[in-house]
């Protein structure tokens, strides 16, 4: 028998390539534009979609070198495993996943006790997506309680206000705008970067729903003096017959102060502190997507805000801004709490403080920088600093831009209203910022300063205005709106 070989046509070959190419970069998807603006008509293999997207994402900054963010970039493998294993669970399905809800309850108990919730009052709390959702729930509760009190007294309820420092995180301005509450700001002054308790309490009037006090300023890491506000406000409440409470925004400091500074009285030990928010994904050492809202007693959470629902198979209470969310973030928080315990948290937080102090002293020793943050465990572990020399041709923004060439991401920003002439650089010390990494950073920072000292003004100007590749990418999604916030906000 004779076998005849058939010549395969080009058309046939193309078809074969489409159907059978198993290598990502040999396939047609590698050479065609990736779908960007409309849903593609046809499928693509999973492996190829994965690789194309992964390749795009590799152009992002390296989270490890991101010194701008408070958010956790390292978790243990066991935590990651638990998260992956539970990724498909919707937290809201209480009936289907009762054990997950039980873990939330345990977390709320552990955190409320850490914040010294009184044993004789029934403290209550809920997991949220982050501190922003948590503080919004707390603001809603304060507003409602104020309104009920005013209505009972037959007084107008159309002008609620909230007192806070001008250095609040943007979530406070959002809450004020979204929920139509007047913002009463206490402005800061040079050298004093936190709320002045006397000025804050002076601003309180009959329409004040509460004072927000920050434990860990986003700008400089300072703790505001919650106790002083509490004492002054108690006296004012007594004199006027009002019942203005305090909410503590402990987004960054809530998981630091109890371990480094256990004697600092800022939490539920203070009579007027009725609610607290904390970010699990900052020093709660979990990946993004978890925060906590806590109330000292059930009576500070008005019933009208809690919804009872039964369409998931049983009666359940819900007090959140959104409904569904991933269960794995709550599970990861429980892992961290029981894995570390008080001892583990203390070791980590003390190390972070040690590295923050070390970095501050190394920066100071260069004689190039002035340190604006506090030390010795009196603030969250970060170093906020600025250039000492005033008569130079570059500023903090140039330092931040140029150090990006060494891959480090360091934010530069202007301070809160009234002291916006102060420009700051900030390094947040996270768990994975070891002393070794700190030394490498200081070396690169000094190379950057050395370069800036040598480069002439004109070259610097060209560099400032050159559009980097990230800017080009950014233009795809950048939109501007007329009504911007009136101040800049430090990166979180
Ligand atoms: C980060 C931060 C927030 C916002 O917290 P998210 O968890 O990112 O929503 C609010 N307040 C302060 C002081 C913060 O540092």
TrEMBL record:
Top-rank lineage group of the source organism: Eukaryota
InterPro entries on file: Glutamate_decarboxylase (IPR010107), PyrdxlP-dep_de-COase (IPR002129), PyrdxlP-dep_Trfase (IPR015424), PyrdxlP-dep_Trfase_major (IPR015421)
Keyword terms, alphabetized: Decarboxylase, Lyase, Pyridoxal phosphate, Transferase
A biological process term (GO) from this entry: L-glutamate catabolic process
Keyword Methyltransferase assigned: no
Catalytic activities: L-glutamate + H(+) = 4-aminobutanoate + CO2
EC number: 4.1.1.15
Listed cofactors: pyridoxal 5'-phosphate
Modified residues (N6-(pyridoxal phosphate)lysine): 282
Family note: Belongs to the group II decarboxylase family.
Protein name: Glutamate decarboxylase
The species this protein was found in: Gigaspora rosea
């Amino acid at each position: 028998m004779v076998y005849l070989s058939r010549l395969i046509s080009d058309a046939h070959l193309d078809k074969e390539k489409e159907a059978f190419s198993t290598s990502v970069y040999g396939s047609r998807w590698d050479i065609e534009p990736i779908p960007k603006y409309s849903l593609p008509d046809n499928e693509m293999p999973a492996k190829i979609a994965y690789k194309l997207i992964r390749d795009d994402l590799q152009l992002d900054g390296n989270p490890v070198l991101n010194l701008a963010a408070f958010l956790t970039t390292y978790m243990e493998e066991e935590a990651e495993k638990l998260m992956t294993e539970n990724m498909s669970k919707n937290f809201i399905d209480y009936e289907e996943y009762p054990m997950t809800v039980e873990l939330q309850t345990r977390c709320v108990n552990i955190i409320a006790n850490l914040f010294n919730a009184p044993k004789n009052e029934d403290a209550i709390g809920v997991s949220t997506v982050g501190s922003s959702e948590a503080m919004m729930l707390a603001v809603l509760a304060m507003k409602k309680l104020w309104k009920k009190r005013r209505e009972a007294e037959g007084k107008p309820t159309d002008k609620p206000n909230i007192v806070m420092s001008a250095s609040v995180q943007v979530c406070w301005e959002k809450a004020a705008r979204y929920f139509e509450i007047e913002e009463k700001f206490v402005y800061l002054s040079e050298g004093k970067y936190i709320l002045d308790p006397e000025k804050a309490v002076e601003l309180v009037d009959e329409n004040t729903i509460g004072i927000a006090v920050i434990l860990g300023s986003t700008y400089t890491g300072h703790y505001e003096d919650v106790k002083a506000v509490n004492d002054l406000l108690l006296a004012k409440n007594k004199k006027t017959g009002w019942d203005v409470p305090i909410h503590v925004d402990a987004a960054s400091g809530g998981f630091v102060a109890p371990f480094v500074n256990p004697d600092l009285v800022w939490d539920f030990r203070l009579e007027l502190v009725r609610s607290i928010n904390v970010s699990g994904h900052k020093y709660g050492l979990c990946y993004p997507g978890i925060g906590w809202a806590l109330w000292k007693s059930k009576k500070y959470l008005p019933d009208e805000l809690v919804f009872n629902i039964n369409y998931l198979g049983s009666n359940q209470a819900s007090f959140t801004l959104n409904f569904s969310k991933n269960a794995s973030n709550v599970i990861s928080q429980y892992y961290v709490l029981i894995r570390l315990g008080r001892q583990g948290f203390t070791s980590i937080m003390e190390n972070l403080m040690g590295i923050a102090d070390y970095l501050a002293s190394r920066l100071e020793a260069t004689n190039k920088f002035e340190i604006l943050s506090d030390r010795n465990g009196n603030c969250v572990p970060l170093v906020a600093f600025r250039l000492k020399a005033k008569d130079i041709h570059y500023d903090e923004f140039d330092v931040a831009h140029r150090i990006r060439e060494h891959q480090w991401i360091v934010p530069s920003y202007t301070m809160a209203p009234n002291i916006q002439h102060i420009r700051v650089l900030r390094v947040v010390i996270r768990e994975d910022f070891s002393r070794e990494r700190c030394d490498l950073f200081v070396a690169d920072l000094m190379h950057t300063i050395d370069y800036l000292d040598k480069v002439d003004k004109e070259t610097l100007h060209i560099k400032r205005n050159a559009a980097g590749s990230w800017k080009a990418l950014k233009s795809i999604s950048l939109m501007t709106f007329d009504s911007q916030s009136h101040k800049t906000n430090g990166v979180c």
